[in-house]
Design goal:
about 525 residues; Diaminopimelate Epimerase, Chain A, domain 1; 8-stranded parallel sheet; 6-stranded mixed sheet; 18 helices
Length: about 525
């Protein structure tokens, strides 16, 4: 607390130069992993060590950390800023324990709403409900159009009014890369998988420019509160980029954003011509593609049938030729390709597309987002073509209850397989995929080292041989994220010459019992020497 009070005395418009002393610093830099003193000048780290430099200028303010733990700012390598902002504004269904409870929350939200106003929500998960069956439109009230996105974003639940507005009926064909769930008579039940969601979502009135800007600002404040100094925004459009620039100009973006362009289109064509855009708070140099669906909604593309649904192998949203075309264009323009792939067929399709464009080892740093279920034989392709595995630790601890049922005991050996990648020398960049999972990186750190839920189950962890060490987990949440964005020279470790992006913690997450990590808090977030959050 003394540290916080002292720092608050520093002007926070690129704060005064300072010397942080008596701190418990974990640098994530293998050359000097621990330190007690860090000097910040001009928004960058001037020195790190165990003694106060003898030539420290008198104007530099000395701040006594009183032993507080300091680590590099967390980097979430896969989040959805607009989605987080929307989720903070819309109905949150993550705690709903049944379809009936979710419906009650919708009914409560409908009270007092204008006729025709849409009720939107996110976070339902039928795998947590009795029977684990998809819900139906008839379970939702029909006074207003309702659309509720599943926790993974790859399925939606519409009520009858929303289906009517979208003109979805028994005669409606499944769109390419999508699926309309139907009853035994062929009638839509209200659940839409992957691209079928667009049949309804295109009917929802778009957010205004002001709403987009405010929701991104709210999401950014939440990230700063949680110690996230950088987020790789996995799917942005021109509207979001414009909002980011407005927030930066107004001094209201308390974090750094590495933006991935959302699929092919005019914005992607623009960047293919202009090349990467590199900035202090906003960088645009990559595209986000969607290779397949999600495992929870059985949309992830598998090489063989789902173990719990014969005849279903999921959905390929893009073909190998599509990925190869984008990859070749990106190589020519000096841009990065980051493709969502969950199932083993989805991952292999992406890897084959990348391989055709990359040819062998390279520094293009293409990424597979999630890399969730990968055939053991295909893992070598990540190393062969220098592909980064952008993975989310909390996906494993959320999915472990049913993952083996989906893919079977043999394929699950290649699921959420962090150590298999690390032992191959593949870079594993960690993240949360918020708002699919909670954005708190401390929860992700906990999942990385325990592979347990918050109650400590299962004992010893799920597939415990795939746990990360604490050092590996810290690296995955800091230095690996910086590397995955070509930013390892400016961030990711607390090293001289790098940006002074760091967080102060309430406890030492590298030493305390694992369960205590869940109680840890970020007491301060510093971005380029500027305090952007403090308790």
């Amino acid at each position: 607390m003394l540290l916080i009070v002292a720092l608050l005395g520093v002007a926070c418009a690129y704060a005064q130069d300072l010397a942080l002393i008596n701190a418990n610093i974990y640098t994530a830099d293998t050359a000097r992993p621990k330190a007690r003193v860090m000097v910040v000048k001009g928004g960058k780290i001037a020195s790190v060590g165990n003694e106060i430099p003898a030539d420290l200028p008198a104007p530099v303010r000395r701040l006594d950390a009183k032993g507080a733990t300091v680590i590099p700012g967390f980097i979430d390598s896969h989040g959805h800023m607009r989605g987080l902002g929307d989720s903070l504004n819309n109905l949150d269904l993550r705690e709903a324990k049944s379809a009936e409870e979710a419906a009650r929350l919708v009914a409560e939200a409908a009270r007092g709403r204008k006729a025709g106003e849409w009720i939107l929500g996110r976070g339902w998960d039928q795998t947590r409900w009795p029977g684990q069956q998809f819900p139906s439109a008839d379970q939702l009230p029909s006074t207003h159009p309702v659309y509720l996105t599943r926790v993974d974003g790859h399925a939606g639940w519409a009520n009858r009014k929303a289906l009517e507005l979208a003109d979805i009926n028994a005669a409606t064909a499944d769109p390419g890369g999508g699926r309309i769930i139907r009853d035994s008579a062929g009638r839509p039940t209200g659940v839409l998988i992957d691209r079928a969601q667009g049949l309804v979502t295109r009917k929802i009135p778009p957010a205004s420019r002001e709403q987009i800007r405010e929701r991104l600002a709210r999401a950014a404040r939440e990230c700063a509160r949680l110690g996230l100094t950088s987020v790789h925004d996995a799917g942005t459009g021109a509207e979001e980029l414009a909002a980011y620039r407005e927030l930066i100009a107004a001094g209201k973006l308390p974090m750094r954003v590495y933006a991935m362009i959302r699929g092919e289109g005019s914005l992607w064509e623009e960047y293919l011509k202009r090349g990467p855009e590199i900035g202090g708070r906003l960088t645009v140099r990559s595209i986000k593609l969607m290779g397949d669906g999600a495992l929870g909604s059985r949309g992830a593309a598998l090489k063989a049938d789902y173990a719990d649904e014969a005849g279903n192998r999921g959905l390929l949203i893009l073909q190998q030729s599509d990925i190869e075309r984008v990859a070749r264009a990106a190589v020519r323009a000096g841009l990065q390709v980051n493709t969502h792939a969950i199932g083993d067929r989805g991952n292999r399709t992406v890897l084959d597309g990348y391989a055709a464009a990359l040819g062998g080892p390279n520094n293009h740093r293409f990424r597979v987002e999630h890399a969730q279920v990968v055939s053991l034989a295909d893992m070598e392709m990540f190393k062969k073509y220098s592909v980064i595995a952008s993975m989310q630790a909390t996906h494993a601890t959320s999915d472990m209850r049913w993952a083996a049922k989906r893919v079977g005991e043999e394929r699950v050996l290649g699921a959420y397989a962090w150590q298999r990648f690390l032992k191959l020398g593949v870079v594993v960049a960690n993240g949360s995929d918020f708002p699919v999972e909670d954005p708190n990186p401390l929860w992700g750190f906990y999942s990385s080292i325990t592979r347990q839920d918050h109650d400590g189950s299962p004992h010893g962890g799920w597939m415990p041989d795939q746990k990360m060490s604490r050092e590996e987990a810290l690296h995955s949440w800091t230095a690996a994220g910086a590397y995955a964005a070509f930013e390892e020279k400016s961030k990711g470790t607390l090293s001289p010459g790098k940006l002074a992006d760091f967080v102060v913690l309430s406890s030492d997450i590298m030493q305390v019992a694992a369960a205590e990590i869940l109680k840890a808090r970020v007491t301060m977030t510093v971005l380029g020497g500027e305090i952007v959050y403090s308790e």
